[in-house]
Design goal:
By secondary structure, the chain is α+β, with helices and mostly antiparallel strands. It is 38% helix and 28% strand. It has 2 domains: 230 residues, 3-Layer(bba) Sandwich (FAD/NAD(P)-binding domain), CATH 3.50.50; 122 residues, D-Amino Acid Oxidase, subunit A, domain 2 (D-Amino Acid Oxidase, Chain A, domain 2). A hairpin with a 6-residue loop joins β13 and β14. α12 packs across α13.
């Protein structure tokens, strides 16, 4: 089989890239190691920047998002027993974020791809990448016991942190930057109305807490926990009791509890691989970088990556210009590192670290007080949260 672009991974990064390339007249195929149901079962974040929403609009998959998504003008920071609202819309001249689950984004992109008949191979086993440092890259995979080979112009590695794409690069060609945080997030999903109309980020002496949502009737809550903890150790009652200890009295009074429909612990890490281009192989999304979820940047960074990559490939095929693919890694990484900084900063001011002593706690409190009382500080947080320009 011969095609212009082979995309590895059918998560939101690979699917969005496939839709953008199709819109630009560029042939593509997607290979996914898991089945469709497994991909859709992944529970992930759902705070979309305006840039991400615009990309989904560009490829015609934003109708359900606009119908069901929740537009948020701000967030709330809770510390010292009180909540403080950050009006991001006012601070950024009208920008907002949209609450819409990553699972729903993935489903919409899958459905759009099916409607126009683009090929996605699910349960593609033993995927291997070949000759991407030359002019004729190849991808091999096994499907139902038969080995297949795809010849292509380019390979896009959108297969996540544990995928084969980054692992196919020789160690001497790539540099890794990483910070693993000494705690995780215990999260539950429940069929309960959200405790607040906007997200609540709480700094508390017992640890961080986050009150989020997926819809008007489905809530997502998190509490900071130790890395050696296990979700099975937490009954629903134990979780709700701990969450209440970390919230302000008004939120506790409004909190509606109920059975969890999903419960898990996620470790936190910052990770960047440089560069993001290796000959005719490009990395995008979690294959190239991970951010702690505190800043809500993971899915949005994947979207900006594929925007840069799709634009670069369009310039190559339609204008015969290699400038875009030549600068892809530099342009993507410039935005990645800004998001890494913001996510690291949010994590550092909201969590209790093992070495957080009384002095450090006072510094955190002073930082948060400054943040909610300074227009300049509020603007800086807001412009990063709603998304820096591409």
């Amino acid at each position: 089989m011969r095609i212009q672009v082979a995309i590895i991974g059918a998560g939101p990064a690979g699917l969005l890239l496939g839709q953008l390339l199709h819109a630009y007249g560029i042939e593509n195929i997607i290979l996914e190691r898991k089945n469709r149901a497994y991909v859709l079962a992944r529970i992930r974040a759902g705070v979309l920047e305006q840039g991400t929403v615009s990309l989904l609009e560009e490829v015609g998959v934003a109708e359900r998002l606009h119908r069901e998504g929740l537009i948020h003008d701000g967030i709330e920071l809770a510390f010292g027993g009180a909540r403080h609202r950050i009006d991001m819309k006012q601070a950024t001249g009208g920008k907002t974020v949209t609450i819409y689950g990553q699972t729903e984004v993935t489903r919409d992109l899958m459905d759009a791809r099916d409607r126009i008949g683009l090929k996605t191979v699910y349960e593609a086993d033993d995927v291997t990448l070949h000759d991407f440092d030359g002019k004729r890259p190849r991808v091999r995979y096994v499907k139902d016991g038969t080995t297949h080979e795809i010849e292509c112009d380019f390979i896009a590695g959108c297969d996540g942190f544990h995928g084969v794409s980054r692992q196919s690069v020789t160690a001497d060609a790539i540099r890794i930057f990483e910070r693993v945080y000494p705690f995780g997030w215990l999260g539950i999903l429940s069929e309960t109305p959200p405790v607040s109309e906007e997200l609540i980020y709480a700094n508390h002496e017992r640890g961080f807490a986050l009150c989020s949502m997926r819809s008007h009737t489905r809530s997502r809550y998190y509490v900071q926990c130790s890395l050696d903890d296990h979700a099975d150790h937490w009954s629903d009652d134990k979780f709700w009791d701990e969450l209440k200890r970390r919230l302000d009295p008004e939120a506790v009074d409004r909190l509606v509890t109920g059975p969890s429909i999903e419960k898990s612990i996620a470790p936190l890490r910052s990770f960047v691989a440089e560069p993001m281009r290796f000959g005719r192989l490009f990395l995008a999304g979690d294959a190239a970088h991970i951010v702690p979820p505190t800043g809500a940047k993971g899915l949005n960074l994947a979207a900006s990556d594929v925007h840069y990559l799709a634009t670069a490939l369009r310039e190559l095929y339609s204008e015969k210009s290699e400038a875009g693919i030549g600068s892809y890694s530099q342009r993507a990484l410039a935005r990645v590192w800004k998001a890494e900084r913001f996510s690291w900063w949010m994590t550092s001011i909201l969590h209790r670290f093992p070495d957080t002593d009384d002095f450090s706690a006072r510094i955190q409190n002073a930082e948060l007080n400054y943040l909610v009382s300074s227009k300049a500080a509020t603007a800086a947080l807001s412009e990063n949260y709603v998304g820096l320009p591409y």
